[in-house]
Amino acid sequence: MTREPVLKVENLQTRFKSVQRGKFVHAVDDVSIELYPGEIVGLVGESGCGKSTLGRTIVGLEKATAGRVLLDGVDLSTLSGAALRSSRRALQYVFQDPYSALNDRQTVGEAIDEALLIDGVRSQSDRNRRTRELLDQVGLAEVVKDRHTRELSGGQRQRVAIARSLAVNPRVLICDEPVSALDLSIRAQVMNLFLGLQKDLGVACLFIAHDLALVRQAASRVYVMYLGKIVEHGPSQELYDHPSHPYSQMLLASAPEVDPVAERQRKAPVMVGEVPSPTSPPSGCRFRTRCPLAIDECKQQVPPAYKLSPGHSSACVFAKDLHRGKRSALIAPPEANAA
């Protein structure tokens, strides 16, 4: 794998005007990430932490307040006209909800045909051939081409959405929880399809999810996001085996067990407190108001990203102790304390 990233995000910041006069929502704050050709990178965190806003900003659906998005080393903010449109086609987004991602008035063929037209395929016969190929790639029969998208199941819709994204031969896919809105019975089917296509086509992918088991299965590297900031980043196996930020530890420990018997017996740690308002984030470490390890130093400065091992870093003053297992942020649930 080449060491030149296909996508590089540098110090990205996205803010929105709040309903409160003079205040802003700090949705994404000084985030830097990298994607290399052909790899899947996970982005995890609680709902509302800024994951989707980061993805939407990368592809241009939201406007960045500061920072840069570079595709093959080219800053997208410096492009315009045909050059910008070409670069935008290389960055595609797969939405979480397949029911709102597609136009109910269009047939499947029309939805894919539209993408092919944008990609410059002028011949109707070429577009028809390519549509058949794409439907076959995502495991749909050619007969669905003439059906309206509203007639399809959720799994079929998401397959069409994936086919439409692939129609323009993207280099990067931003997948925003692409299976979370689907029934459990078909999540594995769509996920296996996606992983197979990604491997065959060599597309780089930022996989946004709250399902930590799914990310562990799919991603080679993982970024952990909390309240607009990346708090930990590392190789998937390393991060799951040695979570080195209090938030990462508690997030992983709170993930449900696959085995229902084990899940009923499990005593999950308590995630204390409420997520602070993104209009008024805490000073210093943003997780400090919920962290059982917080000290005065955590209030005074934003912790740097401490390097723990090759490719693994954590923005916590106790990162090295947590990585070595000398400390734990986990606290017992009330039932265990009572015992």
Structural account:
This protein is α/β, with parallel strands linked by helices. It folds into two domains: 7-219, 3-Layer(aba) Sandwich (Rossmann fold), CATH 3.40.50; 244-338, no CATH class. The strands form two sheets. Strands 6-7-8-3-9-10-12-11 form an eight-stranded mixed β-sheet, sandwiched between helices. Strands 2-1-4-5 form a four-stranded antiparallel β-sheet, covered by helices on one side. The longest helix has 18 residues, at 184-201. It is built from 14 helices and twelve strands.
List the defining traits of the structure above.
Rossmann fold; eight-stranded mixed beta sheet; four-stranded antiparallel beta sheet; 14 helices; 12 strands; globular; disordered C terminus
